[in-house]
Here is the input.
Amino acid sequence: MAAIEFQDVAKVYPDGTRAVDSLDLQIREDEFMVFVGPSGCGKTTALRMVAGLEEISEGTITIGGRVVNEVQSKDRDVAMVFQNYALYPHMTVAQNLAFGLKLRKIDKSEVRRRVAAAATTLGLEDYLERKPSALSGGQRQRVAMGRAIVREPHAYLMDEPLSNLDAQLRVQMRAEIQRLQRELGVTTIYVTHDQTEAMTMGDRIAVMRGGTLQQVDAPEQVYRRPLNRFVAGFIGSPAMNMVNARLTRVDGDLTVSFGEHSLVIDDAVLAVRPALRAHEGGEVVLGIRPEDLEDAAFTAAAPGRTLTIVCTLREALGSEVLVHFVVEDESSAFIARVNQLTAARVGEPLQLVVDTTRLHFFEPASGLAIYGDVT
Amino acid sequence: MIAFPGRRARSVEGSGPALIGPDEWRRSRIKWGVGGAQLLLLVGLIVVGLGPLVWLAKSAITPTNDTITYPMALFPHGAAWSNLREAWTNVQVGRYFWNTVELAIGSWFVQVFVATTAGFALSVLRPKYARVITALLLTTLFVPAVVLLVPLYVEIVHPPLIHHSFIDSYWAVWLPAGASAFNVVLVARFFDNLPREIFEAARIDGAGPFRLFWSVVLPMSRPILGVVSVFAVLASWKDFLWPLLVLTNPDEQPLSVRLPQIQAQTSLGVFLAALFIASLVPIIGFLIFQRSFLRGTGLGGAIKG
Amino acid sequence: MATVDDPIDVYWTDSDPARVSGHEYRRARRTPVTWVRGGGLATLIFLLPMLFVFGAFSWYPIVRTVIMSVQHTNLVSPATWVGLDNFRAVLNDPLLPKAVENTAEFAGLALIFGYPVPLVAAVLMSEARRFRGVYSALAYLPVVIPPVVAVLLWKTFYDASPTGVFNTILGWVHLGPYPWLQSQQTALPSLVLESTWANAGGTVIIYLAALTGVNRELYEAASVDGASLWRKVWHITIPQLRGVLLLTMILQIIGTAQVFLEPYLFTSGGPANATLTVLLLIFNYAFGNSLGGDYGEATALSLMLAAFLAVFSLAYLRATRSWSTK
Here is the structure.
């Protein structure tokens, strides 16, 4: 039995916009599920429907086996952490934590125990008597989480809880949230627009766009086997390079050519994407991740796997260098992540080696990835 | 904050002076011209604003004869503190004072109760018919008070369903005071500016509408309640015509109604002492709650939640 | 109280449920029970105090005014319908033209004294570097004084004898003594003077608040462009304030058109009806000693006044629409 299940769920506004469309998703017990996607993709709306803050237009949502469409928020046994913390400003931290428990008429000693436990877990013991205005952003975030923890709910719902924190704090809190979730073993739905958060935190991530679910799988799988152009371009930073290309056979080898370049397609690729053969002689969209390109000076060169390019921009990040170049015209700007010691210079030619076992292919019309096996 | 001169002046709202830039002040024509005008204004305000009240305070403790013959002199024959005592007891100003207090408290409560409940319903609960109700409220703002006077009086004397006149009952003053669309709109706008997420968090925590109102919204409303309260009490203290009409028993009447009527039988010094006592509460209240007054009067001033 | 299977709180969401599109799951039908459980009842309970108070003491009286204006009411027997008799009686009252004239004069004088002066004061105050709080407090102090106290106090000031307060002060510069409230020529202006004293402070505060809302960058840009002080006031301050200026003007006119306390307490409408205002006439119709008890005429005149103010306001808004862009 799934912990939380969406069955053909849709959210339709009076003017007809479908903020969420035909969402089918099963979230397992104790799973950390991340909803990720650009603004307006429906991830927050989906979360709020689970919480009971938005009415469900179509379909059913089930929590713990029970259909909750008509159940009030307070009876759904879920706890929510809001993006802007939503702490009660006139109450102390302790009172904020205890509020929901008091409303449920939980015994006073039990309330005290849970508040103390949450305070210890989150390092808030010294702040229990302070009001939110006297706390820093990170502390407030922890109080917001504490409020969810003391409820000991069936599931946590988190709506972009880290987006109001500065970068360093965000990294710190990311780790803490993961640690907490593992420790407490509670089913969690976590919404974010940041694909780094999604990749590092989720047991599985659900990529959404325009109200529809694009792909749901473990992060590595979504990274390695994106189901369409959107997911391929959304996950991974910098984004996957894409260009229109043509599949031909040259000297007996299946080759993909774009601009003045051509690459031999490795057998490993064909093993994963048998349907690629059917596109021979036709147009495809080729995708190469920046990390699958390397300066030829630092790796074994191989014929049919090299690109000679002219560097148009060089961004040194310290740990690596991002080399920008163009493959066909200005519209096909590529980025390569190369070794930090690269000799690449703007305006000068450079040889890049492509990891051709990791090429991605998409159908030009639909944007679907070309694999060929029945999933 | 009691504003005595010399204390760091607290600006009324937000930003400082902007019209005249620092470089302009340096030009002597501006400095002396505008500065002179400001000084003139300050002196003018002191004389005109403070003058009459200072005279009242002085005359309240001056013997009647002195006030009549030498109105501008300063205690030519010493002070007469007895005026105050006499006003309070013999002329019964003390009793009327407490009547006024009682009327003020009742009116205040009714106004706060009506404004907060209605504001909460319209702004937080937001029923589908909220627009209609708000429109009905706003129409009352545009109706001049005179239109209500006569029918309201007849209604108090002959209430439609109840066969019992409410003349001489304080309820006849307390309840109509609650019909202030201004209050409701003020409070509703304040609630509009509260973050909705807190309501959602309370809802998930399990709070129903009553709990939300009492434990979350009301405690967060202290600033606006301060403004509403201050204006409610002040309006009640100043109210004249309505209590005059509905409270016929002199023993029950507030200061504003009694004072004109006792003037004839009271010596001037004692009368002025009575006037002084009647103005004490508003003046002291104003000095203490200046911020609320000035914040509420400046239409649309930044009321931060 | 609420059980597990209660329907959702309808009122706290911003959305409306869409129609189900042929799917298995159907939403609960909207019945009175679901409405109550959905929080509709709670909302109504919260609105009850307001509905009661406004219904009883605002909306109902408004309707009653209209009804009573075409009735003859005495509090003993039921009211009788008299058509437009009340209106005719009012229009034929010889006191009416005087009352209207006095009220107009009062409003006009109040506008002259009480409209520009607070603006000038507010502009000066807003540029004060120090003592801003003191200025505001001093200006607002008279507003806080109960009107009855203010009027009775000024009544003492207006003592027409040479030892009256004002006459004494004016005597120092060899002016007066003046009859103040006792002369038909000076009675009304005396009332206006006290009324301005008591009310201008509120206007000052309103202007002050509006002035601080003027974007300082406008002034700075003008300064850089070389505008003089007068230029800045004329081209920036006044236009930026126009909404407030128009609003306070119409509010002041509507307020002074209904002046009652000053004529009632100072002079009871005298001397010789020199200070009789429309409101005082209405009061006399309904509650006065000589006329009193004629609620029909009182409500008729109230309606006429209200109608006039409504028409005036509309005309005002239309006339000033071009100057005040919303």
In short: Residues 85-320 of chain C form a domain with the MetI-like fold fold (CATH 1.10.3720.10). The two ends of chain C are 49 Å apart (CA to CA). Chain C is about 65% helix and 0% strand.
